[in-house]
Amino acid sequence: MDNGVKVLENLLYGDKDGFEIVLRMGQGIDNIKFNEICNKLVELKNKWGESAYVPKAFMQIFLEFRECCENSLVFYDEDEQIDILQHIDKILDLVNEIICE
Length: 101
What we know:
- By secondary structure, the chain is mainly α.
- It has one domain (3-100).
- It contains 6 helices and no strands.
- The chain has helices at residues 3-13, 19-24, 31-48, 56-62, 65-71, 78-100.
- α1 (3-13) runs antiparallel to α3 (31-48) and α3 (31-48) packs parallel to α6.
- The two termini are 22 Å apart.
- The mean pLDDT is 93.
């Protein structure tokens, strides 16, 4: 597995402090982790910019990302839910830039 993909997977799903794990625990958005994820996605976009494909492992880590995060929304009030969804959308927008460009 590409090292950048592995780093991204850990940022998203790491045992105790992954972005999705923290949401699921009701601890809200970790903005430092969010920024690290966005920076890693930009780095991967630049790395794969000339490639005709992206690694399968990259796609697999995002298959259920939105659903997993949305399942955690029950722990948050309406304003926090909106903020969380905006963060999720930003991450997925960056993923789409990698896939579609």
